[in-house]
Design goal:
Its EC number is 2.7.13.3. This is histidine kinase. TPR repeats lie at residues 210-243. With 653 residues, the chain is mostly helical. Among the domains are: 1-80, no CATH class; 267-383, Alpha Horseshoe (Serine Threonine Protein Phosphatase 5, Tetratricopeptide repeat), CATH 1.25.40.10; 412-524; 527-652, 2-Layer Sandwich (Heat Shock Protein 90). The chain has 23 helices and five strands. A five-stranded mixed β-sheet has the order 1-2-3-5-4, covered by helices on one side. Helix 14 (247-263) runs parallel beside helix 16 and helix 16 runs parallel beside helix 18 (326-339).
Length: 653
């Protein structure tokens, strides 16, 4: 809501509460504000809606007051705004109270009391209990009214709430009057007078003093102490010019005064009765009209003007019945029975019937109020039980949620720990693999070094053989044959022919050296095969399995990278380990063949075999496939139960 809108609404609300303006103008301003806020549901709007409700109440537009209060209650309930729920519910209860719908008012006030207690609001509005007591008083439930008011009075005295103390004494006086305990009633009214003296700062201070005086006058009239009653009425009217300041109070006080005058023989009362009725008609106040007509009927009956007396009494009978003011209807019937003796039996019977009916209604009303109290308590108890059950369910849900969260966290932690352990094992495995690969690589280096050392030794041996043997013999033959340059005789030639035979021997010796050299050249390309032979030899030391290793001489292992040879070696190692653990084989064949642009290494056994589909998840087989993939090779595993197993590794070159 913009500042401009707020300023406009504030201005309209001020005008709506300006009593210098006509009722229609104030109502129009209130309606405009309500239309502006009707579509809003924020907290600012709720605050303004309360002000609008107050304006409708001040203008006496009670139905609009109720409508706005219902809207506030609905909005507040949706937001679970306890403070505004209580205030709006108080407005609704007040509506029923001021429109004399006592059962509904009593229900809402009782509900409001329970809400105050259940919501934990510290300050309970004392007017709630006060208005309930007023309802009990109106319904003539005097005993319960006194019980309730005394409790309110104790709290009011404790909190020094002078105005509430004053109101409590007034109610106690009225209740005692209803019980016809007149002296007690007068005592309570006098106590309210004492409290009124403490309320001088109140705008209604004069009226607060005058009311107890008028009530005392009414009690004295019932005691037939008319002169004393006259004095109290005069005291009340002397406090202010009520005809100008408060016309309704003026009529009530004047009617009381005039009746006392009538009973003391002062005929000036007639003019007062007529004037009161005239004003009552002008403001359409049914209570003033009925009281004035009763007084006029009684006055004319006393003056033997039976026709006028009957006219006023019958008018009261009709109006009282129409407005459901049964107390005045009873007074009219009682008066008619005296004025019209011929029909007194009819009036008396109607009086008794109505009186009995009213007593039954009063009894039913008392029971109804008791039932409202009980049902409200029961509803509150059920609500508390439901709330307790909801709290239990909520606690149970929180417990389940907490346990579920704990379980989820525990499972997550367990998964993390397990995953970490798996990761650690994989890391350890990789480290072991790296270590094993390093050892294999070192073994290959050692093997290669030994082969190189063997080569060097063989070269040195051949060098010595050639130098010391062949070269020496050739030198000797050359020297022996050199003589042919000088002599060509047959004897010399015959001797030299022996040297030719010796050359043949040297040829054989050179051939032998060449053969040995060819064997060493083969050894240059068989260092990996030797490693495989050594692997098999190690297994043979603790196994009865018969091994056969076949290596294609066409494979040049020197052109194969160390990384490939390491992985091939590890695959062979894993294969042979699996055979030893599971195959129960008697014969194992390892072949290494050259096929086109690939080296094919196969391991075949005659063991028990296995179902390759069921064994796909084995760690050993998985590792072998991963190793094959690392070097770009393919690995096939062929096996059937009781048919042995063949592992084929194809390595591209």
């Amino acid at each position: 809501m913009s500042k401009t809108e707020i300023n406009e609404i504030d201005s309209l609300l001020v005008k709506a509460n300006d009593f210098r303006l006509s009722k229609q103008e104030r109502l129009k301003n209130t309606n405009v504000v309500y239309d502006l806020l009707n579509k809003r549901e924020d907290s600012i709007s709720i605050g303004y809606l309360f002000k609008i409700a107050d304006r409708y109440y001040n203008i006496e537009e009670y139905d609009d007051f109720k409508r706005v209060s219902d809207k506030i209650y609905k909005l507040s309930s949706a937001k679970k705004d306890t403070v505004h729920i209580v205030k709006s519910l108080n407005n609704i209860a007040d509506y029923y109270f001021y429109t004399l719908k006592n059962d509904s008012a009593y229900y809402y006030y009782t509900k409001l009391e329970k809400l105050y207690k259940d919501s934990g609001i510290n300050e309970i509005n004392p007017r709630v209990a006060h208005n309930k007591a007023c309802i009990l008083l109106y319904e003539k439930n005097y005993i319960q009214c006194e019980v309730n008011v005394i409790e309110i009075l104790k709290e009011a005295i404790k909190k020094n709430d002078v105005r509430l103390v004053y109101d409590c004494y007034l109610i106690l006086g009225m209740s005692s009057r209803g019980l016809k305990d007149y002296n007690t009633a007068i005592n309570y009214y006098n106590k309210s007078l004492i409290q009124a003296e403490k309320l001088k700062d109140y705008p209604q201070y004069i009226l607060l003093k005058a009311q107890p005086l008028n009530y005392i006058a009414l009690v004295l009239q019932e005691q037939k102490k008319y002169k004393e009653a006259l004095e109290y009425s005069q005291r009340a009217l002397s406090l202010d010019d009520f005809e100008k300041s408060d016309v309704i109070s003026y009529i009530y006080f004047t009617n009381t005064l005039a009746y006392s005058k009538f009973k003391t023989g002062d005929n000036s009362c007639l003019k007062t009765f007529v004037n009161c009725l005239k004003i009552g008609d002008s403001i359409n106040n049914s209570h003033i009209q009925l009281t004035s007509k009763l007084h006029l009927s009684e006055y004319h009956a006393f003056k033997k003007d039976t026709l006028s007396a009957l006219q006023y009494a019958n008018s009261v009978l009709v109006d009282a019945r129409q407005n459901k003011i049964f107390e005045d209807e009873l007074k009219a019937l009682e008066l008619l029975a005296k004025i019209d003796p011929k029909n007194s039996t009819i009036y008396n019977e109607r009086y008794i019937t109505l009186s009995d009916s009213l007593q039954n209604v009063e009894r039913a009303t008392r029971n109804k109020f008791a039932r409202i109290e009980f049902e409200t308590d029961e509803i509150t108890s059920e609500k508390k039980l439901i709330e307790a059950e909801n709290r239990r369910i909520s606690a149970q849900r929180r417990l389940i949620l907490g346990f579920s969260l704990f379980l989820i966290i525990a499972l997550v932690l367990l998964y993390i720990v397990k995953a970490q352990r798996t990761k650690n094992r994989e890391l350890q495995y990789k480290q072991k693999q790296q270590q094993a690969n390093f050892e294999i690589y070192q073994l290959m280096l050692d093997q290669h070094q030994k082969i190189e050392e063997g080569k060097q030794m063989e070269k040195q041996r051949i060098s010595r053989e050639l130098h010391d043997g062949v070269m020496g013999k050739l030198t000797a033959i050359r020297l022996n044959l050199f003589i042919l340059n000088k002599k060509n005789d047959p004897e010399t030639i015959a001797r030299c022919m022996k040297q030719v035979d010796e050359i043949q021997n040297i040829e054989k010796e050179i051939r032998k050296i060449a053969h040995d050299l060819n064997q060493n050249l083969f050894a240059d390309t068989s260092d990996f095969v030797l490693m495989v032979d050594n692997l098999v030899a190690n297994i043979k030391e603790h196994s009865t399995v018969r091994f056969r290793v076949t290596a294609d001489e066409a494979i040049d292992w020197t052109t194969v990278s160390s990384a490939v040879k390491i992985q091939v070696y590890r695959i062979l190692q894993e294969s042979l380990q699996n055979i030893g653990k599971y195959a129960k084989a008697e014969n194992v064949s390892i072949t290494m063949l050259k096929k086109d642009n690939a080296i094919v290494v196969s391991v075949t056994d005659d063991g028990v075999g296995f179902n390759t589909n069921q064994a796909k998840g084995g760690i050993g087989l998985k590792n072998m496939k991963e190793r094959a993939a690392e070097i770009g090779a393919t690995l096939k595993i062929l096996s059937e139960k009781q048919q042995g197993t063949q592992i084929i590794l194809t390595i591209p070159t």
